[in-house]
Structures are given as structure tokens and as C-alpha cells.
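Input record, target 12 of the design panel.
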């Protein structure tokens, strides 16, 4: 058998996988495309191993190693995708670009009272309390 047939098939598989990684929006389809690319590499390794008749069968050994790494990658990748889907409600890759958590209305930073306000809601600077930085501008805004 000629070496060109499996090499061309592997190149086509790799190109289809590369297209899937670049064009797909769903994270699970992206993981499947990565697996397709890894299988194309495995096909090349086995084909070149058979063609060169290596006594150590290093191509097949590398193929087994890549299969083990791919199994671990798909397990961890699916776990991450499921966790992201539970937290955000989507697995679309273009919506998950930033790592920051989405802002939730009513967080502690938004509901905290200003430092100049007392428990009864009056301004501490108006009752003779200590004036903090920027309290003069706050008074000017309150009177305006």
C-alpha cells in the first residue's frame, strides 16, 4: 500500500477538524473536532510506522499514548463544559470569552450604605460627624 493514501486521508481529517474548531460555536462540537484532529495524527503515526517498519513500533506506541491523553482530555473537557453550562446556561464559545462571573443585581457592593450615612439615614457630616474624602462634593450634589 502506498503511503500517500493514509497521508491524504489524515490531512483531510485534520482539515475537517481544524474547520470544526475554528467555525463551531458549541463547545462540545469543538471538543469533537479536536478529537478528529488527534485521530488524524494517530492515522499518520501508524501509517508511517508501518511504512518504515520500525523495530520498536514507536508510531504505534505514540498512538496509544495519544489515545490515553485524548481520553483524559475529553473527560476533563466535558466536565468543564457541563460546569460552565450549569453556571451560565449556555455552552456557546463566543459567549464565554471572558472569565469574569456575570454581574448579579443586588450584590453587597451595590447595596452597601455610604460611609457618611448613619443608621437612621441622615448624613453624618450634617450632624457634625467626621468628614471623609469627597464629602464636600457629596454635600454639593445633595444640595443641588
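The sequence produced for target 12 reads:
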Amino acid at each position: 500500500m502506498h503511503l500517500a493514501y493514509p497521508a491524504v486521508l489524515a490531512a483531510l481529517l485534520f482539515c475537517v477538524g481544524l474547520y470544526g474548531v475554528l467555525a463551531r460555536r458549541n463547545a462540545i462540537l469543538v471538543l469533537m473536532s479536536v478529537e478528529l484532529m488527534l485521530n488524524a495524527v494517530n492515522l499518520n503515526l501508524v501509517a508511517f510506522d508501518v511504512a518504515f517498519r520500525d523495530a520498536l513500533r514507536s508510531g504505534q506506541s505514540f498512538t496509544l499514548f495519544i489515545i490515553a491523553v485524548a481520553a483524559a482530555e475529553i473527560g476533563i473537557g466535558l466536565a468543564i463544559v457541563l460546569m460552565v453550562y450549569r453556571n451560565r446556561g449556555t455552552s456557546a464559545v463566543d459567549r464565554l470569552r471572558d472569565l469574569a462571573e456575570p454581574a448579579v443585581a443586588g450584590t453587597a457592593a451595590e447595596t452597601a450604605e455610604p460611609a457618611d450615612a448613619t443608621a437612621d439615614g441622615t448624613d453624618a457630616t450634617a450632624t457634625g460627624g467626621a468628614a471623609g474624602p469627597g464629602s464636600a462634593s457629596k454635600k454639593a450634589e445633595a444640595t443641588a
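Helices lie at 4-23, 27-52, 58-88, 108-111, 135-143.
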